[in-house]
Amino acid sequence: MNRKPPDPKAAAKRAALNALKRAKRMADKAGVELSDWEGEFLGSVSERVKTYGRAFGDPEKGAPGQALSALQTVKLKEIAAKAKGEKQGLQRRPFRRKSSDR
To answer: Taking a C-beta distance cutoff of 8 angstroms, is the pair 69, 62 a contact?
Structure first.
């Protein structure tokens, strides 16, 4: 049996669509109210991935074999975290100056 090797673009497209569906299902199941913008984001990104195979046009915004740009991936992770009920926002430490002991 000679099988064709899997197409990486098709695999990236399936993975992105599954991640978008998973985030939407988790939010619905948990009863988390997504903002209008977040709902529109999930819908429009999934439509673009279905139509074009990727959700961004500028090749500098993401890797050539990926279906979502870097910022879209970050936003998707934030929506999934919100649906899980995890703490929102980035955890950053405040800027501290170096001691002037020198």
So the answer is: yes
Q: What domain range is 55 assigned to?
A: 8-84
Name the H helices within 1-102. Answer: 8-30, 36-52, 70-84
| CA 59 – CA 14 distance, rounded (Å) | 19
> For 38-93, how does the pLDDT look when each residue is reduced to its tens digit (9 = 90+)?
999 999 999 999 998 888 888 788 777 888 888 899 999 999 998 888 765 556 66
- How would you class 14 by CB atoms within 10 Å of its CB: exposed for 0-12, middle for 13-18, buried for 19 or more? middle
Axis-axis angle for helices 70-84, 36-52 (nearest 10): 130
The pTM (predicted TM-score) of the whole model is 0.74
> Is 101 a member of any domain?
no
